[in-house]
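Journal club prep — side note

Before the paper discussion, L.F. wants everyone to see what a predicted structure for a comparable chain looks like in token form. Sequence:
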Amino acid sequence: MLRTWDLNIVIQREGGPVARQIVQAIVYEIRRGRLMPGAPLPGSREMAKALGVNRKTVILAYEELYAQGWLKSEKTRGTFVSSELPEKGIETLKPADSGIASALGVRLAGSGPDVQCLYSEDGYLTFDDGAPDTRLVPVAELAAAWRKALLYASQRNRLGYGDPRGTKRIRHEILGMLSSERGITAGEDNICIVRGSQMGIYVAARVLVRPGDCVVIEALSYPPAREAFRAAGAEIVAVGLDGDGLKVDELEKLCYRKRVRAVYVTPHHQFPTTVLLPAARRMRMLALAEQFNFAIIEDDYSHEFHFTHRPMLPLASFDRRGKVIYVGSMSKLLTPSLRIGYLIAPSQFIDRAAAEVTIIDRQGDPATEAAIADLLASGVIHSHTKKVMKIYAERRDLLASLLASQLDEWISFQLPVGGLALWAACKVDIDMDALQAAADREGVRFLPAGQFSLKNRSYPALRLGFGSLNAEELKDAVARLRRAFLATIQ
């Protein structure tokens, strides 16, 4: 069967010879792009049944379309739209007749989020923002867990609607992981499963922020998070960064001037600069949250990947006053296409978050949640983490070596203690737009620092994700980047 779905066309029995109407209808659908060259058509018997006409009528219509060059017949396969359509009789259709219009006929609300995404594309090597290598996913174990979860849930009629906070088992397993590795003590009423950390940030913004509220972010920060707060109506204020992350003294001064509602922070591996917020600043930030009564939204992305020593415990592990909303995800451990994230917070917040999930998404994916819970419980994910940690550490060291040998005259960097990206600052005055254009011509892409600033100011720095590129790809990508620097500076 070449067509997956039935082809519905409309004819009017009172509008003249039916065969002629079929011809006109099919030609019209080809001209407006609904039937593309090479697309299969139903056989004459199937088409006749669908239209409620005699098969001979459809055969006559098809023969006319063959003669005109609109269709072609392949005896062993069936009838198809011709790959070379006749020029005679082709007319330009009005936009209203050629599918969905290019613009909506009513005013759109506000302006779209200012987020520039960088995707992998054939022919390019991409230094992304710190994505994992999906080639390393334990596919066999994941497939087995998924199959088991689907069968179990189907047999017990549990693939329908459920708790918007997530299944009890996935919540239990994630809480166990967080308790053991990150020192977070919480109960099942303190966690809500979401479709990735970005949805968690968006839900947190919806629950916390009213139009006009002041939300503080780091001077260079994660654009999708910034835009989630902006979409909630927040006034976004940036606080400066230095070699130890967010300047807490500057935050304190701001709190005396403005009523701060929330602070969004990435303390473990600051996004995008990768620096670690030291313990003293963390404790001071918690104290300020209590003193000025603001919430801290802690985005603990890539917590698992820490290469030099035991990772520092998150702010949430020290929170005793209900000031921290902790956002995490399983995406970096496995693959971004597995949309399993979580919010950890006081139960009052989680109840509201679950209500927001109900409006946005109704619930998560019970089969996926069951599969991930099984992999957590069996230790597969823990073993996978240890395995890929070694690989990512090797890739980090290789990238650092390549940059030092090939781009040392133009950039400087600190070896990141964790995460899947490296922050490189330019030593020379360079036009970042020109560098990006030159890199694109060389077939390599990267994220410029200006993209992470509140006002898209140009900064002479680059974020270079290394996790998703293997050794040969890293070597090739750095060579291409070197050629781009040479072309820009000369």
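L.F.'s comment for the group: The chain is about 40% helix and 15% strand. Keep this in mind when we get to the figures.
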